[in-house]
Amino acid sequence: MTESIRLLICEDQALVRTGYVTILSTQPDMTVVGEAADGREAVELGRRLRPDVVVMDVRMPVLDGIEATRRLAGPEVEAPPKVLVVTTFNVDAYVFDALRAGASGFLLKDTPPRQLIDGIRTIARGESLLAPAVTRTLIGRFAERLRPNDTAHPERDHVVRTLTRRELEVLEQLAAGLSNAEIAAQLVIAAETVKTYVSRILTKLDLRDRVQAVVLAYRIGLVQPER
Fold first, then answer.
1. Cα–Cα dist 131/170, whole Å
2. Helical residues (DSSP H) of the chain, grouped into ranges
């Protein structure tokens, strides 16, 4: 029997939080181990309960979801949980900051329940960045933040030296928000081969997941944000 995915739900609106808990508790492979109504409580419960996945709202009182994500899943945190950021796209102007803080992906609050459930399973497996089409739009929206700075060149050189030509091609496709299947079709290779390449890229560059790979690719100017 597959081990249940332990979930922590962090949302300040009680009705929305209850909705998440109700939907997710019906899944045979998921267990809601805690609920938090603000960012500080999210951090406390996250550290104490050690969930596999944290469903994190961005706009919360006391401590916002970005800082809560950083404290739970930032680069310095050992064995961090996966964080799924949920956001109202036209309101939350700092979702990209949450991804940089350590979130493993994001979905919109009006996402259908089935997509939320599948997204949590995807993040729990650590296999893919969520909502590829939204990823492309989001990255374009924050193009100004993603412009490479003067210190990016050594990092870019390191990436180019470390990865093979094919791995660089896969990284570029990742940064465009493509799924494994889409990358496979684009490069005319098998989806399992793409999965292998992605794993190698993350290992070689010491990256936690695909989100970090996307951020790196834009930060060093390997690809340019859509305007």
1. 18
2. 14-25, 39-49, 65-73, 95-100, 113-125, 132-141, 152-162, 165-175, 180-187, 191-204, 210-219
What is the value of pTM for the model shown? 0.72
Backbone Cα Rg of the chain: 17
Using alpha carbons, list the distances in angstroms from residue 215 to 25, 102, 124, 184. Answer: 33, 11, 20, 21
**Which domains are seen in the chain, by residue range?**
5-126 (3.40.50.2300), 148-219 (1.10.10.10)
**Mean pLDDT (10-residue bins), the chain, 227 residues:** 87 95 96 97 97 94 93 87 82 67 83 90 73 56 57 82 96 84 93 94 88 80 67
Going from the C-alpha of 87 to that of each of 23, 25, 71, 99, 127, the distances in angstroms are 18, 21, 19, 12, 21
